[in-house]
Amino acid sequence: RPRQRERVPALPPFQLRDFLLVYNRMTELCFRRCVSNLNYRVLTRPEEMCLDSCAGKLVHSNHRLMSAYVAHMPSIVQRRVAAYEASAAQASASPATEVSEAPAALPGAG
Q: What is stated about domains (predicted)?
């Protein structure tokens, strides 16, 4: 029986967009920094080494940034929830302005 491929879960559109933006920027940055000779179909050894180093450095930096983000995310969420609860409490505490007066009788009405 043929071996079935494992399905990779689909990313939500905003995560896919963010991933592609980071990937494209990294590719462009490393290409501009490392590739200087477009006369050959294959990379030269120095270009290949430069690209490996550049991509590795950017991926490592991205992992460190994401780790810091994940570490600080609970406190960010907690502050947002507290701010939301405070604004909801303030909104429920201030009475809505209602018109409590009955409309005046029209002159000549019965």
A: The twin CX3C motif contains 4 conserved Cys residues that form 2 disulfide bonds in the mitochondrial intermembrane space.
The torsion angles phi and psi of 5, rounded to 5 degrees, stand at -75, 145
3-state secondary structure the chain: CCCCCCCCCCCCHHHHHHHHHHHHHHHHHHHHHHCCCCCCCCCCHHHHHHHHHHHHHHHHHHHHHHHHHHHHHHHHHHHHHHHHHHHHHHHHHCCCCCCCCCCCCCCCCC
Per CATH, which fold does 13-89 belong to? Answer: Helix Hairpins (1.10.287)
**Whole-prediction pTM:** 0.53
What is the Cα–Cα distance from 94 to 3, expressed in whole angstroms? 64
Q: Specify whether the CB–CB gap between 85 and 77 falls below 8 A.
A: no
